[in-house]
Amino acid sequence: MKIKNLIPGLLVLFSPLALAHPGHGGDHGFESGILHPLTGVDHLSVMISVGILAALFGGRSRWQMPLSFIALMIVGGILGVSGLVIPGVELYIALSVVVMGLLLWRSVQISHQWVTVLVMAFAVFHGMAHGAEMPFNSHALAYFSGFVLSTFLLHLSGIAIGSAVLRFSASGRLVKALGAVVAMLGGSFLLS
């Protein structure tokens, strides 16, 4: 495949319209909640990266990071539903993608406590976006249940990916490559 054939696809992939979250598919609670984290590359990349990092750190971090993310995402979601959204939340979400990529690139060279704190901070912003974008006619509990379940499944996917990477790539080059891709993806969000 030639590079010139990839350019149109990359432009579509990284365009703001491809990253926006219009019409989450469902117009009611649970379905919309499930689909919200799956409809934006920004959410997908961060939530899967959290799982990968959790697997890389292992031990308690394997569950502490994802569960901390979910707990603080719920807090952010409540803030978003109530209208208390920090201006520029999408900028912070884009920055979270960059930082998650850098954390993957650096792997476990940073203490798991600092990584967990960053993960929790990012979760608040992702939760705010989820809450602020809740469809008007949705029941909050059903909507929140949907996006929490979807996020949990994305974290599990990341843990599975991270475990596979550890099993098949002892050198850590694959994790660094994943981190570089995620960081560049976040950089493209900042430029759009």
Automatic annotation (TrEMBL):
Sequence intervals crossing the membrane: 44-60, 67-85, 91-108, 115-132, 144-166, 173-191
Signal peptide coordinates: 1-20
Protein's recorded name: HupE / UreJ protein
Keyword terms: Membrane, Signal, Transmembrane, Transmembrane helix
InterPro entries the UniProt entry points to: HupE_UreJ
Organism of origin: Vibrio ruber (strain DSM 16370 / JCM 11486 / BCRC 17186 / CECT 7878 / LMG 23124 / VR1)
Annotated Pfam families: HupE_UreJ (PF04955)
The keyword Cytoplasm is annotated on this UniProt entry: no
